[in-house]
Every structure is written in structure tokens, then in C-alpha cells.
Amino acid sequence: MNTHKSKIPKIYCDFDGTVTKKDAVNTFFELYADPKWTEYEDLWVQGRISSKENAISQVALLPEMTDDVLNQYINSIEIDDYFIEFVNFTKENDIKLVIISDGFDLFIEKTLEKHNIKGVDFYANHLVHKNNKFSIEFPYHNPKCDIGAGMCKCARVTEKEFCYIGDGTSDLCVVGKANILFASKVLKEYCNKNNVKHIPFENFSNIIGILRNL
Question: I need a labelling partner for 207 at 20 to 30 A (CA). Which of 20, 91, 155, 199 fits?
């Protein structure tokens, strides 16, 4: 019997700042949006507005943009050097990998396509780009989400046993439910401060090594 299959039936993974080297959404806003986007970001971090409210306000600050400019940006998104190896590891060990993100589905879809990564489901907010204008939709919004996320991660996770990998504030509603939690950056700081059991990591090579030893 494959021991990984019995111990880790499914891995849920954040996208921005976890799969990607930089937060792809924030970098996009830094490059193109009205600088006021940072004011909404601060309000969200402070808990004064919800993630959904933040996303709506920030997307409204994006200028009109051609498909060529948008695609040029998406093509510039870099992923962790070991993420493809990690995807292959999950497939070899019969582990289902799912990306759940409070970011933009278009960024995830195009990035996976660029690297020919197949068989990885993903759930995220729906970024609409039509007639050079942007808007955002929330197909996975949960009004009861603890952190008011646009895409409520805790509502997507239904298993009693799962592994979670994340790095930021949008991961907070799900971390307490994971029986194996890998955390970096802001999420690691939160776990340390609140005595949440976790495994710190720098990249997906670290995660592969640890999972192999379970």
C-alpha cells in the first residue's frame, strides 16, 4: 500500500506567494493600479474591510488594458523553482493537489498552462477582462466566512484530514483544520504568535523532503 495515499489523501495549496515567487495580484496592482490600492490593502490587513470588499475596490482602480498587456504580465509570473517537481511528486504518490486562492483565477489558469501543469484543480475569484476593462466576480464566496474572503477556503475544504500549504492572511480561516500545515511568511508569523502547530518552509523542495519522510 502507498503510505502517502493513506496519510495524505489531499493537499490544498495557496497560490500567490506560495506557488508564485511573488504575490502575483499585489505585483499587478503595484505595476498598473492607482496607488490608492494600498490604502484598501491596509484596511483589509487591519480587519476594517473584508477581503471581498478589498478586491472589489482594488480592481476598480485598474486602468483599461489591452489583452496583449495583460498577457504580457501573466507570462512574467514566476513560480517556485520546485513546484513542478512537487506536482509530479503528488501524482507519483496518488495525492490529490488542489489550489485554493483568494486571488484571480485567470492568473492561475494561464500560469499552469504556461508550465504545462495538468490535473491540478483550482478555485479562485473570477477576474473578468472584457473590452479592455476589469471587473471581479466571486463564485466561491461564503457570507459566513470567518475572514470575509472573496473565495472562502474553509468552505472549500470538507475533508477531516488534509495537508495545507500557505503563506498569508487569506489562509487563516483554514489553518486550524489542517492536520499537516506548511507555513511561510505572514502565515508562519501568525502560527508562531498563536501557537498553531505548523512546519515552516522556504520552498517546495523542503515540503517534498518532509512528506517523503512521513
Answer: 155
> CA torsion, points 175, 209, 98, 171, in degrees to nearest 10?
20
Q: Which amino acid, residue 103? A: G
Going by C-alpha positions, the residue among 136, 135, 130, 132 that lies closest to residue 65 is: 132
Distance from C-alpha of 124 to C-alpha of 106, rounded to nearest angstrom: 9
Q: What percent of the chain has pLDDT over 70?
A: 97
Which pLDDT tens digit goes with each residue over 25-76?
Answer: 999 999 999 999 999 999 998 989 999 999 999 999 999 999 999 999 999 9
CB-based contacts of 172: which residues, under 8 Å, 6+ apart? 146, 147, 187, 190
- pTM of the predicted model, to two decimals? 0.93
Q: How confident is the model at residue 190 (pLDDT cuts 50, 70, 90)?
A: very high
CA atoms of 12 and 33, how far apart (whole Å) = 30
Q: Other CB atoms closer than 10 Å to residue 92's CB: what's the count?
A: 10
Q: How many domains does one find in the chain?
A: 1
For residues 72 and 84, give the distance between their C-alpha atoms in angstroms, rounded to a whole number.
22
Domain span at residue 65 reads 3-212
pLDDT for 145 beyond 90: no
Rounded CA-CA distance 89/175 in Å is: 23
